Each structure stands twice: as C-alpha cells, then as structure tokens.
C-alpha cells in the first residue's frame, strides 16, 4: 500500500515540520492528505478507533494562521499525530480497546497530549489498541499484507504510520508493544528509558512496567517526537526530576569512535524463525569486529517469568474493579490470565521486583563496556491473523523489564516479503547515545552493501 511519494502524507515528520515552518507546506494540506489516505485504505487496515476530520482540519488551520501571523511555533508545528486509544484527551473518547469503556470521556488531556499541543502538533485521532492494551487482538491489519497481524498492543499506531495515514504516532510498551509492532509494520519504533516520558492520563496496566514509546518514518522522526513529549511529571511515580537526553541532537551527531556492540546468545533464540535468524546473522557479520558475541548470563533465562509475574500481578490489582464488574465482557483470551494472576502470592511478586532491580543493576555496569546491545525486534515476520494473537514479544521482554531504551530499525525483509526489524538497546538516560549509535549502524550497513 505505497502512496504517491509526491503527496504530503508521504513526507517524514521532520520534513513536514520544516516545510510548514518555511511556508512551503500548510498544515491543512498535510492533514487533508492524511485524511484522504485514511479514507482510501483504512477500510482494510482498521488502524483508527476515533477520528474527527473537521476537528483535525480546524486545528491545522489554526496552526497555519499562527505561522502566517509570525507567532511562536513549536517543534511539531502543524504535524499530525495519532494516539493509542489508552491515552486520555479532552476532545475524544478513550475506549481502551474494550466495549466496557465505550464512549468514555476523560474530560482532560494526558500529560503527553498537553506537551503535543504545546509543540504545535495536530491530534488527528485515536489509534486502535488491543483489549486493555494486553493480549486479545484488535481488528487492525498489517498494511504490508492484511492477512497478517500488525503486532500489539499498539496495533493501530504502528499500522497508521506504516500505511502513511500519519507521520507520527504514540504507543505504549509493557512487554513488546512498541518494538514488535514497529518490526512487523516496517517503521521505526523507539521506547526511551523508563521515566523519560510521563504516563499521567494513560490506562495503567502495570505501574512497574508500563512505558511510553513512539513510531515514525525515520530515526529523526522518533527522536523529534520523543523530545516533544518528554519531561518530568511529579504525578508519575517513575518520572524522574532531572534533565532528559536531547534525542534529536543525539540522532544527528557523529560517533566520536566506532561503537562497541554486544550480541547475547539468548536462551530463547530458538523462537526465531529460520529466515529471521539468517537475516540477523548477516547483519552481525556485516558489522564485523564491532560486535562481540556473548553468552547470556544464567539469570536471563528466568527474566521472562519475572516480567510475567509483575505484569499479571499488577494488572489484576490496577483493574480489579473492571474485572469484577464486567467479567462477562472480558475476552476468553484474557480471562484465564487474570484467573492465574489472582493466585500469585505477594511474596512471589516482591521477589520478582527484587529480580527486576537486580537486572537494572547488572545493565548499569554492563554498559560501561558497550554502547549498545544488538538483538532481534521480534521472532521474524508478522504471523498471519489466523494464528491468533499479535506475535511473541519475548525478544523485548528483558529490556522492557529493566527499563532500558530500545529502538527498532526497519532494515530487513523476510521470505514472505514482510519487514523484520533489528533492535538496539542502550543504557539508562543515554538515549541520545543509543540513537547516535543506531544511525551509525544504519550507515555502516549501507556502506557494507556497497
């Protein structure tokens, strides 16, 4: 579903923002092109949960008038953005992927929406999420092949960017819900360090694990959006009160020396598809001596279970009233998970939190010697919708549990012609360095191809 490359909706967010700022493009024409693309293709892709074209066009015209009047403009001035439908806005319902919350009005913007408006962005609408941002798949399809899943839980956000509906979208990740859909849909996905982006005004499924991430067409796009929505919020217990990395500066910077990368032989590497493993091995070989292959520490084998315990224990308690009042409206996919979660002892949960902190301590030391870890973004190409689910998140689990910054680069194509992402993971609060390393990796691989 490739659009005419001359249409404004095919622009990257960085290009669109520059053209709008320079008077070479109006926000109204950009939003009109996005809406036309949505009208043309969303009947098949089903990326959008809430859309109000007139409201979006009114926002765009206001941004154009501000530019013409010579008033201050933000970094995303006039650029449309999609929001995962667990993010509260004052002007759209937030239905959280379930009929339980049909028509739910929050009456207020989430912190990140306030920051988007402050940056001049146009909130185009709400993108589809899986049920309560967890397991049960939504109706969204992969734009590269609608017989395949786009991934989840940020299904609509990844698909909307891949389908050229919108240049930027926001999602969340509690396990693999940004990096995996980015890989399946062939777009850039970035989940910064836990605490960089505040979660106030979002559906809470796991206080310990929920993290905000973004989707864009380019590495600069995800850096630009992350800069715009980052910042401290004292209402979020994991938001930290100190300066954030400058993502766009990092993305554009040259590496002072060639980076040192690590590849772990992960204990669940057998879950990679054959073509995914072969393609990733070619990437590692092309980077040559810059990548050191390492055995996984023995503790890695248990971290997937640790993430499961924390996630299930916390969602069961955060949404207790929802499950008790609406059990018959919870999907058959989720019900057995909640029943299992109700049996997790407090002591097991506390032990899991302790192991999570130990993982964080390990990586704090590990990254003294390495600039990034290179790893799969997912198990391979997007599975067919008929397989059920939204794909296996296991290649994201350890990094999300530890709260590390992660980026998925759309570098590979599998045997069925579907995208496969390459994931890079960096150290805490050095997200700018991770993006700088990611750019170097892309350039190095292009040079290796000749």
What does this structure look like?
With 450 residues, this protein is an alpha/beta fold. The chain has 2 domains: 245 residues, Amidase signature (AS) domain (Amidase signature (AS) enzymes), CATH 3.90.1300; 176 residues, Amidase signature (AS) enzymes (Alpha-Beta Complex), CATH 3.90.1300.10. The chain has 15 helices and 11 strands. The chain has an 11-stranded mixed β-sheet with strand order 1-3-2-4-6-5-10-11-9-7-8, sandwiched between helices. Strand 10 and strand 11 form a beta hairpin. Helix 10 packs across helix 13. The longest helix is centred in the last third of the chain and has 21 residues. The protein is globular, with a radius of gyration of 21 Å. It starts with 12 loop residues before the first helix and ends with a helix. The model has no long low-confidence stretch (mean pLDDT 97).
């Amino acid at each position: 579903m490739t659009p005419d490359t001359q249409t404004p909706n095919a622009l990257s967010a960085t290009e669109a923002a520059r053209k709008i700022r320079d008077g070479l493009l109006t926000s109204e024409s950009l939003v009109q092109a996005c809406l036309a693309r949505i009208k043309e293709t969303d009947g098949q892709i089903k990326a959008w949960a809430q859309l109000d074209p007139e409201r979006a066009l009114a926002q765009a015209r206001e941004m154009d008038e501000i530019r013409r009047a010579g008033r201050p403009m933000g970094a995303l001035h006039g650029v449309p953005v999609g929001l995962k439908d667990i993010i509260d806005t004052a002007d759209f319902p937030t239905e959280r992927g379930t009929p339980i919350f049909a028509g739910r009005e929050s009456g207020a913007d989430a912190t990140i929406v306030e920051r988007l408006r402050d940056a001049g962005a146009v909130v185009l609408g709400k993108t589809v999420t899986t049920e309560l941002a967890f397991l049960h798949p939504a109706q969204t399809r992969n734009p590269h092949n609608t017989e395949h899943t786009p991934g989840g839980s940020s299904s609509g956000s990844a698909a909307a960017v891949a389908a050229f509906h919108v240049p930027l979208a926001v999602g969340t990740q509690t396990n693999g819900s940004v990096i995996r859909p980015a890989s399946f849909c062939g777009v850039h996905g970035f989940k910064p360090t836990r605490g960089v982006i505040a979660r106030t005004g979002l559906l809470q499924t796991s206080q310990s694990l929920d993290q905000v991430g973004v989707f864009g067409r380019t590495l600069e796009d995800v850096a630009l959006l992350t800069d715009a929505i980052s910042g401290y919020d004292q209402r979020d217990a994991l938001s930290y009160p100190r300066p954030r990395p400058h993502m766009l500066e990092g993305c554009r910077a040259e590496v002072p020396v060639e980076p040192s990368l690590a590849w772990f032989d992960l204990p669940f590497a057998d879950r990679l598809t054959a073509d995914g493993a072969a393609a990733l091995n070619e990437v590692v070989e092309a980077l040559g001596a810059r990548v050191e292959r390492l055995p996984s520490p023995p503790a890695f084998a248990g971290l997937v279970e640790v993430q499961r315990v924390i996630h299930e224990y916390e969602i069961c308690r955060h949404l207790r009233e929802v499950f008790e009042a609406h059990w018959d409206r919870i999907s058959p996919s989720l019900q057995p998970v909640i029943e299992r979660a109700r049996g997790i002892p407090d002591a097991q949960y506390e032990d899991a939190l302790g192991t999570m902190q130990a993982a964080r301590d390990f990586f704090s030391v590990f990254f003294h010697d390495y600039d990034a870890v290179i790893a799969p973004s997912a198990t391979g190409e997007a599975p067919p919708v008929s397989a059920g689910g939204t794909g296996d998140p296991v290649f994201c689990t350890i990094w999300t549990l530890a709260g590390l910054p992660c980026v998925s680069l759309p570098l590979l194509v599998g045997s069925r012609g579907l995208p496969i992402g390459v994931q890079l993971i960096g150290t805490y609060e050095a997200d700018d360095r991770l993006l700088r390393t990611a750019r170097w990796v892309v350039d190095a691989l292009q040079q290796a191809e000749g």
